Amino acid sequence: MAIQWGSWASGSSYTQSRVGIDVVRSGGTVTARFYDASNAPVTGDSRTLSRTGGSTSYSVTYGSGGGTTFIESVNYSIAAGASLTISASVSGVFNGAAPSVSVSVSRPFDAPAAPGTPSVARSSDTRQVVSWSRNATTAAPYSSQRVQRRDFTGSWGSWREIASVSSSATSYTDNGTVADRAYQYRVRAVNSTSSATSGQSDTVYTTPAAPSGLVASKSGTGDVILSWTNNARVSGYETRVIYRYEDGAWSDEIAVASGVSTYTFTGADPTRRIEFHVRARTTDGSNLYSGYAASGWVQLQTPPDPPSGLSPSGGAGDATEAVGLSWTHVPADTSPQRQFELRHRESGGSWVTVGPVAGGSPSWSLPADSYSNGAIVQWQVRTWGDHEDPSSWSATATFTMSARPTVVISAPDGGVVETSSAELSFAYYQAEGKPQAAYRWSLDPGGSGTVSGSGSSRTLAGLTDGRSYTVTVEVQSSAGLWSAPESVSFAVEYAAPPPAVLEVEFVRESGAAVITISTPSGTPAAESVTLERRVNGRDWHTVTEGLAPNVTVVDPVPSIRGVTEYRAVTVSPLPSTGTGPVAVLEVAEPGWVFVNCGPGWESVRRFWGNPRLSARASRPRALQAFAGRTDLVEMSGDRQDLEVTVSGVLTPDSSTVEEMEELGLTPGEVMYRAPDGRRVIGSIGEVSTGWMDRHRSSVSFTVTRVRREP
Fold this sequence. Notes:
This protein is an all-beta fold. The protein folds into 7 domains: 4-106, Immunoglobulin-like, CATH 2.60.40; 119-205, Immunoglobulins (Immunoglobulin-like), CATH 2.60.40; 212-299, Immunoglobulins (Immunoglobulin-like, Sandwich), CATH 2.60.40.10; 305-371 and 380-391, Immunoglobulins (Immunoglobulin-like, Sandwich), CATH 2.60.40.10; 406-492, Immunoglobulin-like, CATH 2.60.40; 501-587, Immunoglobulins (Immunoglobulin-like), CATH 2.60.40; 599-707, Elongation Factor Tu (Ef-tu), domain 3 (Beta Barrel), CATH 2.40.30. Helix content is 1%, strand content 54%. The protein is built from 1 helix and 57 strands.
């Protein structure tokens, strides 16, 4: 390094002197070179250098301008991590000057040596003890040590520091491990100069995850095929299979290689029930075992249990038609149905046996005319699997032979319908006098439905002029049999009244729509008008009917966000109908909440102030446990609950506190309309109000839905 000079020193003359040191360190040796300097001529001046560790005499001569003279070189020792200060001064200068200088030198510690490769002792899945040896020296000490770990969860993760321990530590207990992992450790030594990392430890394993979903099924050759799902994330494991026969001891374990999820068990006794378990085991010598997955019992060959699910059972069939009989094969050994035998009889008579019939189909058709209508028929079935013996006979199923009912449509008669509605009339007949239980109808194009009871007529409304329709009717007897469908086609031709034209205006103060209906004259004349509404693209429904052809009406509950459409249907005395053009009302009322109540929703409350809205929807549910199932089963009810919670601010242009409190005391349903477009017909709960300042009050309440809007 460069010479470090002390300050210029002056004596009794203008001549100045100074002393300097040039320091070089190599390992533990510091070489100091001492220098004298003057800024003016000096001749034969004898001087003494006093420096750390000794002194020396020397003489200097400088020409004009002065100069520099090397005095001597001295070696000093310095320990690692230490500092050394070298001082020097000069005496004997001719003019009495006494220059001096000091220089400090530091030697850092040497880089640390890496700790020894750690070893790991497993205490449990959540506790591993890591041990290592230190290689610190005086010249290369440790200031701290960092324990690092990486995890295997299908692949090795990155090294990460899990602890910082003291420089003298030689072990660390890791309490942050979990099951179904593999771990490796290493230790990094640190000092002020550098760091060094040990080699990685051997892999330590925790208990592997248990297999799941073990299924044992028979092969066609009498073997048992096992399959399961391996859930262990570590690779150092194998699967162990054990088995036992009923009333027998468990076998020795059978090893299956890592990653394999099937095993074929051969040589099973076909006459005995057998079950299997599988579990995972580590292969690093730690012999850690997971829990077992169980297959349940497997019967290679045994007769089936009696068939179940016989159908029909309690129903009816027409004796003039083939009646399909079906059942469920119930194997005790998982083997499919190979053949069946069936028997049937009229109640109290002798059995007629069919079969055995080869095949796996769990069904058979009783031929037409096997019995007479009015007879009560009993039947049983038994099945075979792979075992040579059949199941026991099933429980007896019973059904009644009964003639299908018939239906005749008397109106419409297939001619032309000259009105916008037609009366559907039909007649029911059943040969044994069984009463009508229901009927179902359909109109194409149009609607359909099923009606319980003995009804024999209905009105087909909304027929369109110039279109053709087909109406179809089926009837059901009390025995449960439906008739063949009866259909009649007819055309519709009528003179429609002139369509009405609508004008719609939104009244912001009440959230209502004012609709002006204008109907021109024509033939046939419009006798009355029906007003229909559709909200945000949903179904049309009637607002009011029987209106005068030219009138202004109020709809108190249009949507306050989105699109409300209106149309008028004019009705003539024929009757016939004409549908007018759609009038559109599009509204966006941010911040306003409207609540209507009373007959026809005529009474309204509203408030402003960025209302806070929340909704809670639910349906009744219960969790049930059933024998033979490992998991719970959810049972859901039909009821669907919706509750809306509302809070906001009453302002001078809102409803008053008294009006809101009156709403809470008024019986009956309310129509709640929110600025997000939500519409709920429900029951209002307690209405709470509170004073905020001289101009504002708070309001809050809940609305629980009681029915859906039509």
